[in-house]
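Example protein as discussed:

>
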Amino acid sequence: MFDNDAQPGFDSPHFDVIDAPTKEWIDARVSWIVHQFGADRVRTCEVVVPTTEFFTDSFSASQEEVRQVLDRTCDLLKVDARLIDLEFFDEKQAFENQTTALGLYLQEGDRYRVWIENKELENPIGMVATMAHELCHVHLLGHGRVSEEEDDQEPLTDLLTVFLGLGVITANGAFHDSNWHAGGWEGWQVGRRGYLTMAMYGYALALFANLRGERKPSWAKHLRADVRHAFEKTCRFYEQHPWQGVGRLRQTTARPTLTRTEELPEVEKEAAEHRTEFEEGECDYCGEPLTENDLVEGICADCWTSVEENDQALAEDRENEQLMIRRRNAFLKWAGILVGAAILVMILLDSLGLLES
């Protein structure tokens, strides 16, 4: 457990993974989540990673398959799938002026309706991230834990996905770049979703790991490089400055510095489109000011480097996973051949009367 409260007579240690108001908000909301859902649930929930264990088969984006994925996500988040109605909509279709939404949620009596934008079906890992967000609305809005009037309920919904085991998926799904693979699923997309920055996800996942007593969790290797950098830096910081922030229910008026608002337009330019001339602005993914050294449209050099590092790391993981699959299949093949041969020998010996006692 950790404690980031300043000790009497000592200055608070410097922490630069995220800004102070954002850190204060996450710390307070983490304590609230633990008090609402229980420490045991956070410690024992299954952590979903983008491997064949969860993303088992090729995905054809049929409505039946999407429903199966939704039911599986409901099971992981402990939401009653029988109460969830699934619908689909087009990006240009208006839902109360939320034309840029990737997913929508609506409570109808004791039932809950979840909409998934049709383009999300082309990106299954992003689709699961969207499902996780909308289903966490059931826990928060549907079960009356928060109201729609609370100004931080949307980022809180993203944060809750972390502490119910879907944080690897929602963190990786927050920023899509080039080719991605998730078990048997793969695709290509550039875009951004959600309300939390990569650093915020990394910080929250570090708190999640600590609450579970995991110093070096195996799931951390599946984090994209920029999230993993913030995760590891936070872990190192709290090894030197223990934090016990969930020991009491925290209250704060601080609010996080978000990666987007409802008014933020969807990122449409491809990451590989290089600049012809420098234009001032902020990185679409971390919010830092762009400089003349940033050669990719709308992306700072650090984020672009993290994209390349993450692609390389995931490629190595995929190669290792495919090697294990080939070895397993070869073993099963030869085991089947040997068993078949043994059966034939037994039959032959029996026909010759050599098996008689």
User: Anything to note?
Assistant: The first helix runs from residue 20 to 37.
